[in-house]
Amino acid sequence: MNYYKNSANQYGMEVDAFLAASVGVANLEELMALSTEQVIEAANFTMVLQAIAEDAEIVIGEEEMTKYFLVNAGMNDYSAVIEQYGVAYIKSSILQENILVFITDNAELE
Known about the structure:
- The protein has 6 helices and no strands.
- By secondary structure, it is mostly helical.
C-alpha cells in the first residue's frame, strides 16, 4: 500500500485518484479486495503445481539448476544469480517451468 501512496505523492495526486488512473480501482479497500483475490488464485495455482510435482516426482537439485542455466542462459557459473535472488526462489522458478513442460509433454489431445 505504501507503494501506491508514495507513487501518488510523487505525482501530486490523491491516493484514490492515482489508484483509479493506474490500477482501475476506486480506493485502497477495493485494491485490497482485488489483491486478496489475486493472492488466493496464485496460492491455489502454486498448490496445484506442487501436487503435480510431487506426483510426477519432479525435484530441483544442483544438477537441474546447472542444466537449466547452461541451456537457458549459457551460464556455467550462476552464483551471482543465486546471490541476487536466493536459491529457494531460483529452485521454485525452475520447478514451475519444469512442471509446465511436464504437463505439455504429457498432454493428450482428444
